[in-house]
Design a protein that fits this description.
The complex is a heterotetramer of chains A (543), B (98), C (348) and D (216). Chain A has 543 residues and is mainly α. Chain A has 16 helices and two strands. Chain B has 98 residues and is mainly α. Classes of the chains: A mainly alpha (543), B mainly alpha (98), C alpha+beta (348), D mainly alpha (216). Chains A and C meet through α3, α5, α8, α9 and α10 of A and α1, α2, α3, β7 and β9 of C.
């Protein structure tokens, strides 16, 4: 039983409360900041996607034909930097997280609204510095900045890019801090931890990583910048440094960062499955704790990026074992999502299609992770397209699918309008097929021995590369379609009403779009469990 | 609400800290081999606990605050121990170069 | 494409078969699981498709036995994968005794190989089939990675440090050599070929190209050129250690520790002479050769020291038992290379 | 706490108590993040300390132990002074609060003055890597590494000190404007948390940079 008292009809919502560009740029409303984030990450997504498309075109031919080898190196570097730090990491937390966390816990806003706005500005500043590096001629170190290449050999704009990422890192820390404090202290009366939606649990786990891992990235990039500016050997063996130490420090951040990217995706999926099966999420407690387990164990596995990098065999054994341990909570989640559909009332709306696609792709991505965690097998496929395919199945097949699913699911809440269902289902299908055609051949390429970051390659790999490029163009269409029809729907979609999906959760108890303070009266939660569809019975009979 | 400590207890904490700086410095003049570093960092840890516990009121603040503080410290220990595991176990398993 | 698939299964080294076997087993297991999950998703989507707009699903929340099952079973399977993966790892990285020892110096963007017999190759490596070959590798600039897909093995090549890789090619042929770690502009051009030859052809190839003498003899030349011989002149006056019978022997240091005089130790002495001073010797005696001696020259010098063999009056050559260090498996291999190189030295 | 409930709080909070607790958690999370930031440097220091033991020992002997020890005492005293400021704030005594804030800032400035004097000494002795550095002898590269970490870590610490001084100055202004009362003074406590945390970092920096070179 969730009681809310929406007494009077609200004329103004958060979109119409104030007008003018300045009312957006200086807004501390978490919903408006979420919209600001949506604009920015969309721009960065298509920028990063453009680089990816250029790379795929270049790889149509075994020889370097479209761009020079040096340009290709800059393309994959900028693709990685922009997609990881300016799209994937802020994507779901910055947009859906910002919008939904206060609404789901019945709060008026995040704990620190000004910091929230500040984090967007910091993120944009970081983005601008990185784009500056891009326009000055780009960076060619790879997004991993491996030393001593990045510190002593690259002649490109490494410092600008590193500083841009460092700045964006502070934005991540502030966002994470804000979420944790909000979830701890801003919950509505009666909303205990085990009454929270899984979205909140997963975002909490993701925020833990943001806060504890990002500062290590900041300090690592700072050291790279110091080494480049002052020509002192922090990581350069010629001056007594150790390049493997850089890898430890980098992956201590960057492996957990994978979970920063995918946990919010899992958060979205854990909401979509119950809503479109009209059934509580199966194994709620196991799913909740598995999020926390992923966040904690995820910090203990970074050495699996270094099995052939010269780390000790003993260390490699430990990291391999721990990597298998972190796969257990992910497996639990997959089985629980699947079980949620069993004996449900399953609809085929677009968010559900994305969610089912997510589970399929995430399963493939996760299971190829089991291949990679095996020490002896990793020796062969490390730094090949097998790895590329694996993490794209997690990042794109996982996070991006979840993001698109979430955008469709909460679009009625955000905009107050419905999106066109038919074309949305079609584009979900296009994304799914395009994605598989792009990345599945890369598993084969990887096992055949095609190394990553090659602008030119032996001709026997061409067939698979052509397939992959063909898939990429389909995938590109699949991403442009939602952009078009969602913008259309913002103006011309039919009115959605407060709860078009008949879903549970506090965010559906208020108007669409919500009023500036989310709830007219602070809700009091009395339901013993989340996803309380028993309480929906009355509402459903009215339909 | 955090109850204020008395000025007297702050002063005692401060005197204790000054004493520990002195102790740490004096011990550093003795050559104890590898123990020098262990003792220096150990005494520093005791000092840090005094500052965190009394001056920063971690001992008197809410449980969440202590969990957050413990989280920061534990994560740092994870970082340092797993990194050093690599460096200290090179060659343990008889694999050349590893 | 068919050629690809053939290459795919080609087990060109002694460990490749095991990697293929692991791959196939994992592939079968994961396909079964993935197909199972996908079918269940599709079955549920169709079987439980919403019939009426106001329909509700069953409100089951927990099923502890099922949840325990799908937590424990994957974990047990994962442990199995870990054990197999770890076993395979040691098969791949631990070299057998009796390897042919070669040196690789990588630089942007080429592979330089030095055979003990003195042959030098760039972006090519000729090896005999059926013999285990061990490469001791270092880089002059950035990190590279020595990757031979057909051999299913790979190792990063680091500046300032030696790493090793070994493989025993099974049958003659021509195989790709790739640099797998991004190393700058022409990373994709840092490729080469491994030529696996019949042992007899290999011998012929060796004699054809043997123009400048063995690697050890080149090392001897440098040993005089850089003035090493002025101090390390075997008269053992007490200022400098006698380098005979040093290779792969334990050395007691002034600090009381014992280290093994392996390739890395000798390399380190040229780079940072006072880092690990042997017992009974003073520091600040040997000059620092950083920037003076190149990586190529260092491997030649190491080969020379390796070839110097036992000191006069010592009857036994360096034996595996004499080196209780962490690299216990190496001395026999080292000794074989050393005796071979030494015999070449003597014939000169 | 019934009388505090009537006090104003920001609109997203229900009560001032909720606001104080939330901000306190936020501050501590920030400090946990700071632990990891300095933690990265401590990890790197440990690795190089293990691989260049003699060089680090030798380089540490170049530290000015007298100035370092004085600075430790000074910084601890500034923490005491700030603790007194917090105490005065809780007692509602605005004048004492202002006096102790000013005292803390002056002591903090003294710390920075001594720190920069040390930096200048190192510079004059050609111990500033990347700017003016010569070291000879067998451990030159290790000594340079020590000084790189010395400058990066104490430099980052000094930046934190400067930020801390800025925070104290802002708090002082708000004190003079009469913002803080016995009921509402939590910003003073949060400023204090930050300042004491910076103090903790110095305690460790002192132990790893100044002390190892004292014995022969």
């Amino acid at each position: 039983m969730i009681e809310t008292a929406v007494v009077q009809t609200v004329k103004k919502n958060y979109l119409t409360e104030k007008q003018g560009i300045l009312s957006w740029l200086f807004s501390t409303d978490h919903k408006r900041i979420a919209i600001l984030y949506t604009f920015s990450i969309t721009v960065f997504f298509f920028l990063g996607g453009f680089f990816a498309l250029m790379m795929r075109l270049e790889l149509l031919s075994p020889t370097s034909w479209l761009v020079s080898v040096g340009t290709y190196n800059k393309l994959f570097t900028m693709h990685g930097i922009i997609m990881v730090w300016f799209f994937l990491i802020p994507s779901i937390p910055g947009t859906l997280g910002n919008f939904l966390i206060p609404m789901m816990i019945g709060a008026k806003d995040l704990a620190f609204p000004k910091l929230n706005l500040l984090s967007w500005y910091i993120y944009m500043l970081g983005g601008l510095v990185t784009v500056y590096a891009l326009f000055r001629g780009g960076v060619d170190t790879g997004w991993t900045f491996y030393t001593p290449f990045s510190t002593s050999y690259s002649t490109t704009y490494v410092i600008s890019a590193a500083v841009g990422i460092l700045i964006a890192g502070f934005s991540s820390i502030i966002t994470g801090l804000n979420f944790i404090a909000t979830i701890h202290r801003m919950r509505a009366p009666g909303l205990t931890w085990f009454r929270l939606p899984i979205f909140i649990w997963s975002m909490y786990a993701s925020s833990m990583i943001l806060v504890l891992a990002t500062p290590v990235l900041a300090i690592t990039l700072l050291m790279v910048a110091v080494e480049r500016i002052f020509q002192v050997g922090i990581f350069d063996p010629a001056l007594g440094g150790d390049p493997v130490l850089f890898q430890h420090m980098f992956w201590f951040y960057s492996h957990p960062a994978v979970y920063i990217m995918v946990l919010p995706g899992m958060a979205v999926i854990s909401e979509i499955f119950p809503a479109f099966s009209r059934k509580p999420l199966f194994g709620y407690k196991a799913v909740a704790f598995s999020s926390i387990a992923i966040a904690v164990i995820g910090f203990l596995v970074w050495g699996h990026h270094m099995f052939v990098a010269g780390e000790s065999a003993y260390s490699a054994l430990a990291f391999s074992f721990l990597s298998y341990c972190v796969a257990v909570p992910s497996a639990i989640k997959v089985f629980n999502w699947t079980a949620t559909m069993y004996k449900g009332s399953v609809s085929w709306d677009t968010p559900m299609l994305y969610a089912i696609g997510f589970v399929g792709l995430f399963t493939i991505g996760g299971m190829t992770g089991l291949f990679l965690a095996a020490l002896g097998f990793d020796v062969h496929v490390h730094d090949t397209y097998f790895v590329i395919a694996h993490f794209h199945y997690i990042m794109v097949g996982g996070t991006v699918m979840a993001f698109l699913g979430g955008v469709h699911y909460w679009w009625p809440k955000v905009s107050g309008k419905m999106y066109p269902e038919g074309i949305a289902r079609l584009s979900a299908l296009v994304v799914f097929l395009g994605f598989n055609l792009t990345f599945f051949p890369q598993f084969v390429l990887g096992y055949l021995g095609m190394p990553r970051r090659y602008a030119a390659y032996p001709p026997e790999f061409q067939m698979l590369h052509v397939l992959s490029t063909a898939g990429a163009s389909i995938l590109g269409v699949g991403y442009v379609l939602p952009l078009c029809y969602l913008i259309w729907a913002w103006h011309y979609g039919r009115d959605a009403g407060p709860n078009p999906w008949r879903a549970t959760g506090l965010e559906w108890k208020t108007e669409s779009p919500p009023p500036t303070h989310n709830f007219e009266v602070t809700p009091i939660v009395t339901a013993e469990q989340p996803y309380d569809y028993e309480a929906m019975k009355e509402e459903l009979q009215l339909v | 609400m955090i109850e204020p400590l008395s000025r007297k207890s702050y002063t005692f904490a401060w005197l204790g800290l000054l004493g520990l700086v002195l102790l740490n410095t004096l011990i550093a003049f003795l050559n104890l081999g590898p123990w020098n570093m262990i003792i220096a960092v150990g005494i520093a840890t005791v000092m840090a606990s005094i500052v965190a516990g009394f001056l920063m009121h971690a001992l008197y603040d809410s449980k969440v605050v202590r969990i957050v503080l413990a989280g920061g410290v534990i994560w740092f220990l994870i970082f340092v121990s797993l990194t050093l595991t690599d460096y200290m176990t090179r060659g343990w398993l008889g694999v050349p170069g590893k | 494409m068919t050629a690809n698939v053939l290459l795919f299964w080609e087990a060109a080294s002694s460990v490749a078969g095991e990697v293929n076997a692991f791959f196939v087993c994992m592939l079968i297991l994961c396909t079964v699981v993935a197909v199972g999950i996908a079918s269940f998703l599709i079955y549920c989507a169709i079987r439980y498709h919403r019939k009426a707009e106001n329909e509700l699903g069953s409100q089951t929340r927990y099923n502890i036995p099922a949840e325990t099952l799908w937590t424990v079973v994957p974990f047990v399977l994962f442990i199995g994968m870990f054990i197999w993966g770890a076993k395979m790892y040691f098969d791949i990285v631990r070299p057998p005794d009796n390897t042919i020892n070669m040196y690789v110096v990588a630089k942007q963007w080429m592979w330089k190989v030095q055979h003990p017999e003195g042959q030098r190759e760039i972006n090519e490596l000729h090896i005999p089939a059926g013999r285990a070959v061990k490469l001791t590798m270092t880089s002059e600039d950035v990190i590279h990675s020595f990757f031979v897909p057909a051999f299913r093995t790979k190792q990063d090549v680091l500046p300032g440090r030696y790493t090793t890789i070994w493989f025993a090619a099974q049958k003659p042929g021509k195989y790709h050599l790739f640099c797998a770690q991004y190393c700058g502009t022409s990373h994709s051009g840092m490729i080469g070929w491994i030529y696996v030859m019949n042992p007899r052809e290999y011998q012929a190839w060796l004699t054809e190209g043997a123009a400048e003498g063995s690697l050890a003899s080149t090392g001897e030349k440098y040993f005089h050129q850089f003035g090493c011989a002025n101090c390390h002149n075997f008269t053992n006056q007490g200022r400098c250690p006698d380098l005979r019978n040093l290779y792969m022997r334990p050395v007691q240091l002034t600090t009381g520790q014992t280290v093994l005089a392996d390739d890395s130790y000798i390399r380190e002495k040229l780079r940072d002479p006072d880092a690990q001073i042997p017992w009974g010797f003073a520091s600040n005696v040997m000059p620092n050769f950083t920037g003076i001696v190149s990586e190529d020259q260092i491997v030649a010098l190491i080969s020379y020291i390796k070839a110097l063999g036992p000191a006069p009056g010592t009857l036994e050559p360096a034996s595996p038992g004499a080196a209780p260090g962490p690299y216990g498996a190496q001395p026999a291999a080292g000794a074989t290379g050393a005796t071979k190189a030494k015999s070449q030295l003597e014939t000169r | 706490m019934s009388e505090t409930a009537t006090l104003a709080c920001r609109e997203q909070f229900a009560t001032p108590e909720q606001q104080r607790e939330t901000s306190s958690i936020g501050m501590w999370i920030f400090l946990a993040s700071e632990i990891m930031m300095f933690g990265g440097l401590f990890v790197a220091y440990s690795v190089y300390r293990l691989s260049h033991p003699q060089a680090f020992q030798e380089a540490s002997a170049h530290m000015d132990i007298l100035l370092g020890s004085i600075n430790s005492a000074i910084l601890l005293t500034s923490s005491l002074s700030l603790a007194f400021a917090e105490h005065s704030a809780q007692a509602g005594s605005r004048n004492l609060l202002a006096i102790f804030l000013i005292a803390t800032m002056l002591i903090g400035l003294a710390f920075l003055g001594i720190k920069f004097t040390e930096y200048y000494e190192h510079y004059q002795q050609h111990e500033a890597p990347g700017i003016w550095f010569d070291a000879t002898g067998p451990h030159a590269s290790g000594i340079q590494m020590f000084f790189v970490f010395y400058f990066v870590m104490t430099g980052l610490h000094a930046i934190h000190m400067i930020v801390g001084l800025g925070i104290l100055f802002a708090l002082l202004l708000r004190t003079m404007l009469g913002t803080f009362t016995a009921e509402y003074h939590s910003p003073i406590l949060f400023g204090g948390l930050y300042w004491h945390f910076v103090d903790i970092i110095w305690i460790f920096l002192y132990a790893i940079f100044y002390l190892p070179g004292l014995h022969k």
